[in-house]
Amino acid sequence: MCYGHIHTKQAIFISMAKPMPKYSKIHYGFTLIELMMTIAIGAIVLTLAVPSFNTVIRNDRLTTRTNELVASLNFARSEAIKRGIRVTACKSQNPNATPPSCTTSNSVNWSIGWIIFTDPNNNATFDSNTETLLRIQENPLTNITMTGSLNIANYISFVASGQSRLTNGNHQSGNIKVCDDRTGNIGVNIALNNAGRLLTQQEIACP
After folding, report:
1. E strands along the chain, which residues?
2. Beta strand extents in 58-132 (DSSP E only)
3. Do 86 and 158 form a contact (C-beta atoms < 8 A)?
4. Is the dihedral of CA 107, 110, 112, 116 positive or negative?
5. pLDDT digits over 29-69, tens only?
6. How far apart are CA 5 and CA 18, in angstroms?
7. What confidence tens digit (pLDDT) does each residue in 109-168 have?
8. Which domains are delineated in the chain?
9. For residues 16 and 26, what is the distance between their CA atoms, to the nearest angstrom?
10. pLDDT > 70? residue 20
11. Distance, CA of 204 to CA of 202 (rounded, Å)
12. 3-state secondary structure the chain
């Protein structure tokens, strides 16, 4: 009887046990509608971001070209003071030539490149037989322009005192406007004063 009683309780326990529930598999991923919405949002963001990124790049190119010219002119001034003679920077269409030469053509501007040289005979022309070439700058063709006002359209010359002087001995000053093919207040102005010092101004109207 004892064994039979135990067997009955086991049977009741087994009969009362609930079957384990069956869980369906969970699938992770995107539906077609969600994917299309994601692509559409991405396209909108890209459309807004690309013009802004292009503007940053073009502004950076203007700044870089401006800084290159300013650095070269400051170098020319320091060399004039150090050497105690006139040092000239002029725009050049062939800075890598042997020898290079200055250009006075109105059809080109400082953006094409420039050379810096000692100029003891005060003629703003590089005489390779008697003068020393100090630095060259060759620029790739771009849509950037660097247009100098009348007195500094072709050359900038520094004497031993560090002042900027024309070949006739008069003080030399003026502005170089740096622009590209855009319009608006995106340009940079390089201002040269009579003391030979340079100042840059941002947000200049172009063209």
Report:
1. 87-91, 113-118, 133-138, 145-148, 155-158, 174-179, 184-192, 198-206
2. 87-91, 113-118
3. yes
4. positive
5. 667 777 777 787 766 766 665 567 788 899 999 999 999 99
6. 23
7. 999 999 999 999 999 999 999 999 999 999 987 899 999 999 999 999 999 999 999 999
8. 35-206 (3.55.40.10)
9. 30
10. no
11. 6
12. CHHHHHHHHHHHHHHHCCCCCCCCCCCCCCCHHHHHHHHHHHHHHHHHHHHHHHHHHHHHHHHHHHHHHHHHHHHHHHHHHHHCCCEEEEECCCCCCCCCCCCCCCCCCHHHEEEEEECCCCCCCCCCCCCCEEEEEECCCCCCEEEECHHHCCEEEECCCCCEECCCCCECCEEEEEECCCCEEEEEEEEECCCCCEEEEEEEEEC
Identity of the amino acid at 120: P
The tokens for 15 are: 């009969």
